[in-house]
């Protein structure tokens, strides 16, 4: 037993070592050459470097050049099995120069095909998992993609994590962690903080789902033509009232208004700036007549106004707006139609994903940025190990970088300037604010105190002023305040007076007393808030309990009308006469004969009931059921030329506010009747948006405006109008997020600062209606919902959730503390005693010629690979002086098709067994290592504390956007304090529309584009698709499918077209079977729409065929892409060289323009160009006029279209022709010949 026990003890020890050691770790402390293999594929010309991280002694793997493709791979000593137990994938990336367009992800490769070598690593090399950040165009996410084998078909399918986290937008080091758990759970961490949790088998978390649905809608089940899905319809029997005047304007001139005394009619509001001087380089012919800048007329400053005086407008009491028949229940309503469900033939079951093992780690990216540094790549099975690596390798660097990034601010806090006496006074004032019966006014009192504390030169006078404010509030609560406001329309003063005159008859003496004391009676008014209502009732209780019969009646009348006026805004109909007539007889006895408490209790009961009504109704709601004109005010600022329309949502009877034109700025605002306070209680902001034409570049957010400066009007609303909160979707370039931004006043400086929600949700990419909800809770929690599903939870005071944080850190690094010169942060140093071995040859090359290789028989040494196209002719408008010497485009040499190759034959290279690379001394522990130096921490002079954000109230709701898309429809804007109310609005207003749109989209996706084909034609296409799946046609599969799909889209398909397709496919087959120049490996598209399966199906065939193929691979030269030549490219982009990645747009007969039938149009267009993007989008320029074709005159071949150029091209093209085949703007697109 002793021996057995000893063996068990040894095994346990080794198991502990295995569990604690990582399965793989790469620190890049030593140069990577020899361990990591750089791909030799011709597309990957980016230079990798072993480089220090900026500001550190730590080394990493550096992307050193812009606008390049990179590929490098490290083969593991042993495969890592993912099927059993937990696995953690972790690595660091620092985007030292930012990341506007590029990837920084890792690929964890599965076993490759036979004879694959690391030098062949490219985008077609199959992987098990792809993980890491990626930003370009619409893409801004931390990818997690896994390739999983379908157990029924045997093919690998890509499954993408839905709602992936966004990429941090700074230039700091970040560590990305993916935790794969045996219970099918996936956790994505950024900097150790969980950003996404998912389940591998959940259809809500991966697209497509790992397990297909058990049932699917029957594609043959069609909705009956008489099926009516409308729940409500206009009442056909309704008739517009005779007195309803639709033409009455909403506003009319105020005839009672009088021009203010001193108004300067003959003075303009603005005059030419007398100090302005015409620029010396101004050319009137080219630039137009010069005009001096305008400034405010100084003569108008002291006057009430200048220019022509116009009467102000007031509300037209006759205005009713456009009449609409009321909606009634649809007697023919049958509900939302859904096709019947059938069993899914592709359904299968899985207990857990069948992951392939990891045999190598690769980085294969296309990036426009340099400075991307990879470091500390880790694979382990222990979360604590991953956590310890983050703490030891990433955290120290991140802290140093974060401190360095923080701006220095020398502002000192004001609170330290207060004397001891002043501090004591403020302590007393804060205690006064906590008195229970002042609870309703607590915020106002605290505001006054805090404003006093912020004063740099606090005096006794200011303290006394604050005390006066508080005492005034207390006295108003105890003894009543100023007279209430007159009621809002439609109840007028005459209505109220009339109501008072119809009361119980009184003696002349009583009447006289009433007239005399009329001013002291609470007048009927529209209550401004529940608090106002309760104050009115409380005053009534006090006076009724202590006053006489006359006062009881007068006060009773006043309270009933006050309560009713409040109800008017919620019940839409109330009149004091009616209320008093109904309640007078049963209630007046309760105010007489000593029963004085019954009336107050009854009034309190009414107030409570109406308070419940108030609580259940939204604070603000806009359905756009009626035209918006008059209620919403369109900005008159000159930049905002976009036309708003009152329009139906596509496919619905529901109206909304529509963005009707492309490439315009829009601004519109609705002022609220009463400000909405955000400081107390829950507040929900909610609205719907439907991007009916998608959203490539534009915003669809709302701005909740705070009170504006004096003199501001709705017609002056623009981007500078200050707001409390900005919320909603925004997509353009690298931006793809649902914004939540709040402008918060710094209590020390008094300035407003924008605080952006970090890692906001991304915008849904479809064209359906979506509802966006922001829930602000009194415990400082923020929740962002999309379609009722929580996408983000944050805390207003968490520095991890907002940038910059609302509350600055309590301590900061001392800027005067400097690192000692002898401080050594190197944990490891080269061993000075180490000596390079004698047999280590640093000059030995990595690769040498294969001396055993033999030139294939039939090789045509004297024939070039490409020749001038004999059918091409020089264009008639070609100018040799302007355009240069014309060169015919190149084509493949037909003589080379049957030969194994053409041109000079060179021996292929092979790995040099003697290669060892540059020798480096091994690293040893540094005896002088002192750790990472950190400056000492000092108190932050800008630090302050808050219990909750000091939100400004919402006084208006505005939409101020600049968008390249039309068809953006806003609807159902809601502000409320009850989450259930918001939920009910989603269920009633959004959900039915969404379900209809979703079903319609599913039907469109399910239906094929060849619905008009005959049975024979469908069978032909089925056969053609089977051709495309033949294994030995795998390398041509994408081209074949492209040809088939284009043919299916033809509306007038003929037998001739079908025969033509067969000829194309058969030609490809014959070329492969009977010889031609070997096809070039497909260039990988950089968009996500590329065929994910192309890399997964390996070429099959007999052993003899494989042998021949491998021979050809070794001897045939790699094909170069078709020649490209950039004639002219005008750009003012100093950030990066546009021409480096935008040389090709034409692309030959199979290019983007040819596919859209736009070649001729493209060659004729000429525009004045200012910059590649702005010029193409707007036509504005500095005067240079060129043809679009001059931007890229290209021979047939492969090339890349830049995002800004293609964006502009698409914008020009839609103005001239309907286009559907132009590739999406803002994405880099491969155009293949």
From TrEMBL:
PROSITE patterns recorded? CALRETICULIN_1, CALRETICULIN_2, CALRETICULIN_REPEAT
Mark out the compositionally biased spans (Polar residues). Answer: 1083-1092
Annotated membrane topology is:
Single-pass type I membrane protein
Q: Name one GO biological process term.
A: ERAD pathway
Q: What keywords does the record list, in alphabetical order?
A: Calcium, Chaperone, Disulfide bond, Endoplasmic reticulum, Glycoprotein, Lectin, Membrane, Metal-binding, Repeat, Signal, Transmembrane, Transmembrane helix
Protein name (Swiss-Prot/TrEMBL): Calnexin
The record lists the organism as: Ensete ventricosum
- Organism ancestry: Eukaryota, Viridiplantae, Streptophyta, Embryophyta, Tracheophyta
Give a short account of what the protein does: Calcium-binding protein that interacts with newly synthesized monoglucosylated glycoproteins in the endoplasmic reticulum. It may act in assisting protein assembly and/or in the retention within the ER of unassembled protein subunits. It seems to play a major role in the quality control apparatus of the ER by the retention of incorrectly folded proteins.
GO CC annotations? Answer: endoplasmic reticulum membrane
Q: Which residues form the signal peptide?
A: 1-19
Q: Where in the cell is it found?
A: Endoplasmic reticulum membrane
Q: Does the keyword Chloroplast apply?
A: no
Q: Name one GO molecular function term.
A: calcium ion binding
Report the SS bond pairs: 697-732
Pfam families in alphabetical order: Calreticulin
* Composition skew (Basic and acidic residues), residue ranges: 217-242, 506-528, 813-838
Task: Classify the source by domain of life.
Answer: Eukaryota
User: Residue ranges of region Disordered?
Assistant: 201-283, 483-528, 804-895, 1080-1120
């Amino acid at each position: 037993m002793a021996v057995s026990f000893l063996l068990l003890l040894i095994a346990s020890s080794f198991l502990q070592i295995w569990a604690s050691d990582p399965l793989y770790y790469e620190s890049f402390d030593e140069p990577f050459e020899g361990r990591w293999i750089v791909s030799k594929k011709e597309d990957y010309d980016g230079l990798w470097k072993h480089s220090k991280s900026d500001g550190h002694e730590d080394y990493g793997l550096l992307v050193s050049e812009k606008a390049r493709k990179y590929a490098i791979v490290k083969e593991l000593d042993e495969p890592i099995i993912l099927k059993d137990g937990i696995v953690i994938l972790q690595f660091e990336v620092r985007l030292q120069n930012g990341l506007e367009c590029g990837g920084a992800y890792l690929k964890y490769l599965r076993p490759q095909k036979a004879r694959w070598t690391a030098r062949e690593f490219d985008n077609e090399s199959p992987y098990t998992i792809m993980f890491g950040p990626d930003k370009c165009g619409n893409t801004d996410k931390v990818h997690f993609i896994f390739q999983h084998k379908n157990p029924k078909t045997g093919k690998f399918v890509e499954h993408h994590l839905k709602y992936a986290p966004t990429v941090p937008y700074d230039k700091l080091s970040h560590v990305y962690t993916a935790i794969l758990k045996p219970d099918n759970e996936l956790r994505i961490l950024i900097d150790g903080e969980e950003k996404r949790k998912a389940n591998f088998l959940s259809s809500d978390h991966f697209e497509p789902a790992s397990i297909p649905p058990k049932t699917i809608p029957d594609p043959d089940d069609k909705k009956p033509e008489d099926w009516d899905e409308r729940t409500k319809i206009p009442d056909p029997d309704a008739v517009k009232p005779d007195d309803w005047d639709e033409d009455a304007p909403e506003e009319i001139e105020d005839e009672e208004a009088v021009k203010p005394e001193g108004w300067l009619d003959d003075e303009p509001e603005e005059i030419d700036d007398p100090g302005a001087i015409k620029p010396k380089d101004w050319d009137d012919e080219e630039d137009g007549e010069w005009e001096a800048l305008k400034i405010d007329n100084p003569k108008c400053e002291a006057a009430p106004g200048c220019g022509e005086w116009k009467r102000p407008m007031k509300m037209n009491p006759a205005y009713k707006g456009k009449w609409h028949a009321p909606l009634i229940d649809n007697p023919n309503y049958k509900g939302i139609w859904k096709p019947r469900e059938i069993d899914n033939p592709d359904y299968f079951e899985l207990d857990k994903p069948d992951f392939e093992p990891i045999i190598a780690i690769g980085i294969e990216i296309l990036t426009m940025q340099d400075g991307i540094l990879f470091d500390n790549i880790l694979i382990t099975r222990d979360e604590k190990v991953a956590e310890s690596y983050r703490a030891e390798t990433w955290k120290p660097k991140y802290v140093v970088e974060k401190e360095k990034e923080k701006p220095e601010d020398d502002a000192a806090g004001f609170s330290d300037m207060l004397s001891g006496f002043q501090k004591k006074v403020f302590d007393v004032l804060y205690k006064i604010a906590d008195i229970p019966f002042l609870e309703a006014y607590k915020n106002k009192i605290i505001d006054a105190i805090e404003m006093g504390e912020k004063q740099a030169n606090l005096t006794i006078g200011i303290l006394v002023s604050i005390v006066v404010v508080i005492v005034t509030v207390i006295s108003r609560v105890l003894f009543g305040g100023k007279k209430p406001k007159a009621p809002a329309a439609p109840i007028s003063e005459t209505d109220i007076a009339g109501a008072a005159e119809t009361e119980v008859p009184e003696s002349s003496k009583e009447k006289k007393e009433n007239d005399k004391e009329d001013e002291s009676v609470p007048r009927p008014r529209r209550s401004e808030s529940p608090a106002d209502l309760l104050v009115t009732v409380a005053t009534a209780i006090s006076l009724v309990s202590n006053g006489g019969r006359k006062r009881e009646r007068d006060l009773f009348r006043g309270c009933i009308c006050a309560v009713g006026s409040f109800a008017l805004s919620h019940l839409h109909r109330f009149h004091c006469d009616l209320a008093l007539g109904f309640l007078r007889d049963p209630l007046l006895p309760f105010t007489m004969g000593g029963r004085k408490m019954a009336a107050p209790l009854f009034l309190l009961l009414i107030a409570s009931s109406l308070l419940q009504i108030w609580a259940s109704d939204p604070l603000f709601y806009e359905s756009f059921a009626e035209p918006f004109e008059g209620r919403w005010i369109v900005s008159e600022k000159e930049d905002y030329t976009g036309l708003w329309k009152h329009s139906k949502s596509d496919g619905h009877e529901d109206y909304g506010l529509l963005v009707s034109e492309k490439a315009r700025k829009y601004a519109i605002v609705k002022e609220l009747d009463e400000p909405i306070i955000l400081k107390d209680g829950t507040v929900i902001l909610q609205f719907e948006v439907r991007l009916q034409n998608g959203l490539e570049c534009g915003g669809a957010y709302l701005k909740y405006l705070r009170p504006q400066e004096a003199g501001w009007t709705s017609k002056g609303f623009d981007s500078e109008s200050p707001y409390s909160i900005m919320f909603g979707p925004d997509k353009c370039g690298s931006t793809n997020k649902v914004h939540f931004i709040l402008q918060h006043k710094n209590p020390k400086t008094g300035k407003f600062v924008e605080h952006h929600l970090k890692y906001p949700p991304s915008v849904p990419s479809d064209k359906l209606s979506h509802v966006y909800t922001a829930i602000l809770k009194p415990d400082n929690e923020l929740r962002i919902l999309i379609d009722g599903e929580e996408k983000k939870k944050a805390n207003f005071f968490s520095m991890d959730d907002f940038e910059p944080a609302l509350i600055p850190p309590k301590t900061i690094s001392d800027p005067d503390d400097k690192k000692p010169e002898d401080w050594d942060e190197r944990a490891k140093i080269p061993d000075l005693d180490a000596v390079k071995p004698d047999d280590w040859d640093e000059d030995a090359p990595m690769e040498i010629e294969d001396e055993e290789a033999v030139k294939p028989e039939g090789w045509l040494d004297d024939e070039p690979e490409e020749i001038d196209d004999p059918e091409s002719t020089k264009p008639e408008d070609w100018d040799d002086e302007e355009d240069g010497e014309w060169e015919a485009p190149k084509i493949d040499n037909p003589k080379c098709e049957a030969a194994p190759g053409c041109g000079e034959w060179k021996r292929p290279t092979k790995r040099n067994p003697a290669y060892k690379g540059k020798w480096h001394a091994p690293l040893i522990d540094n005896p002088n290592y002192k750790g990472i130096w950190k400056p000492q921490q000092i108190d932050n002079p800008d630090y302050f504390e808050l219990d909750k954000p000091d939100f400004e109230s919402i006084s208006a709701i505005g939409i101020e956007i600049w968008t390249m898309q039309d068809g953006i429809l806003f609807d159902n804007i809601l502000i409320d304090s009850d989450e259930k109310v918001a939920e009910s609005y989603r269920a009633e207003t959004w959900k039915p529309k969404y379900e209809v749109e979703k079903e319609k989209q599913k039907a469109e996706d399910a239906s094929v584009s060849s619905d008009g084909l005959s049975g024979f034609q469908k069978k032909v296409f089925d056969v053609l698709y089977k051709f495309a799946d033949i294994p030995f046609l795998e390398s041509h599969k994408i081209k074949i499918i492209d040809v088939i799909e284009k043919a299916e889209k033809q509306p007038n398909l003929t037998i001739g077209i079908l025969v033509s397709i067969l000829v194309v496919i058969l030609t490809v087959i014959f070329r492969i079977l009977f010889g031609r120049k070997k096809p070039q490996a497909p260039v990988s598209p950089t968009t996500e729409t590329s065929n994910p399966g192309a890399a997964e199906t390996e070429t099959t065939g007999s052993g003899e065929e494989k042998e021949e193929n491998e021979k050809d691979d070794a001897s045939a030269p790699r094909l170069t892409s078709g020649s490209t030549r950039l004639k002219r490219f005008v750009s003012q982009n100093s950030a990066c060289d546009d021409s480096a990645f935008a040389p090709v747009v034409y692309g030959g007969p199979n290019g983007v323009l040819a596919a859209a039938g736009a070649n001729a149009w493209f060659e004729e267009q000429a525009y004045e160009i200012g910059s590649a993007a702005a010029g193409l989008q707007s036509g504005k320029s500095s005067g240079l006029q060129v043809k679009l074709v001059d931007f890229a005159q290209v021979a047939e071949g492969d090339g890349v279209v830049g995002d800004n150029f293609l964006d502009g091209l698409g914008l020009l093209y839609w103005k001239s022709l309907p286009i559907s085949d132009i590739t999406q703007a803002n994405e880099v697109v491969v155009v293949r010949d």
